[in-house]
């Protein structure tokens, strides 16, 4: 599998494909729908860049490892190095773009791993576990506290959230992440999913939106 970052106008972004840093349970209602406690600080995990696939043309899901759940998220592309808890202006300067994305999860497997206190990697980092759309430039989004993310499946809206509802807003959470480990150009931040997650099925028709900025039709192959 291969993937290259690009902007919505088709211009390719010449960053190496980096890691995908995810924030778990960043929307309180989503944490509650899965009977998870609401965390008191950002819950971080990482997907390797090798699991990223483009949304265009459709994407495949595993068919032999139990239910695959969708989680629509706002993705942030990092364009400059960040480390040691940078200030707000440095974070804003390092944001290269925003896109809608799907964080895919093998839900039954994840539950079993959590019950045993094991890491989640096999449930969260399988090939194709991050479905990423082209980015709009960072300066195209004026208010980072009011970015809408919406997912429709087979004509029905399943998730409809906003960055306004995040427990950890975009800039502070990037500061938190970069205080733990360096962020490099080409890294992507997945900022959490709103309430409404559920299983995907082969043949599902999807529309994934960064509301007011971009919209992408796709399907499960």
UniProtKB/TrEMBL annotation:
Signal peptide: none annotated. Keywords: Hydrolase, Metal-binding. GO terms for molecular function: acetylpyruvate hydrolase activity; metal ion binding. Residues 19-220 form the Fumarylacetoacetase-like C-terminal domain. Pfam families: FAA_hydrolase. This is Fumarylacetoacetate hydrolase family protein.
